[in-house]
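Let's study a protein:

___
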Amino acid sequence: MNRGSEPTLIASVQRALRLLEVVGQHPGGITAKCLARNTGLALPTTYHLLRTLVHEGYLAKLDDGAFIVGEQVAGLHDAAQAQQLRSTIRSTMIELREDLNAAIYLARYDDGEVVVDEIVDSPRTPRVDAWVDFRHAAHATAVGKCLLAGLSKDERTDHFRRHPPEDLTPRTITGLRELVERPAPALVVDTEEYSLGTACMAAPVRIADLPVTLAISFPVRKLATTRDYVRPLRAAADRISRSLAVAGDYPSRN
C-alpha cells in the first residue's frame, strides 16, 4: 500500500484508547504518572486526555488519585456482547434460510404480547405479508401457537381475552377450547391459517422464563416436503438455545 492510500488516523483518539487499555489492565486503579510511563505519553498530554475521559464517563478518578474504568465502558461492553449475540443468532438464521429456502423468524412472548425480533428473508424467500399484526394473530400462526405453548392455561386464557381469535382465512382455528386446552406439539405447523398460500413451522427455543421460537414460512405447495425441514429447524433452534444459555440473556431490541 502506498502512503497516499493509507487511512488517516487521529493520534489523540489512538492515545486515549491506549490509556483506556492500560487502565483496564489495572483493576485496582493506576495513577496518571504510571499511565504516562506505561504509554510513553508526555505527562501533560496524559492529564489532558484523562480529564476528557473522566468528563465523558469512560474513566473515573478515585479519592487517592488513581484512575479506573468508568460506567460508559461497562455500557459499551454490554452493548458489544448483545450485538455479538445478535450477530451469532442471525448467522444461524441465514444458514437456515439458505438450507431450507424459506424465510426465517425469531420471536418471543414478552409482557403479554407476541414480539417478532428478527426476520431473515430474501427476494427468493420473501417473508409472509403481515397483513394482520402478529400480536393479534397468535391463534393463527405457528409463531404465536409455539409461544403460547410455553404459557400456562391461565396465561393463554388471558391472552385470548385481550386478543379474541378471529377468522383470518377459512382455515383459521378460533375455538377457545382447542386453543387453550389442547397441548401444542413440540413442532407447530399452521397451514394457511394466517395467509392463504402460506404455511409456517415453528420450534421452541429453550431459555428460562421467556417463551421464544424459531420459525419458517414457505409456500403451502411445499407442505409435502416439510419432513425435510424438521431436523434443520430443530437443530438451528438448539444452536440458538445454546447461544442464549452461554450469554445468559435474550438480545431484546427494546
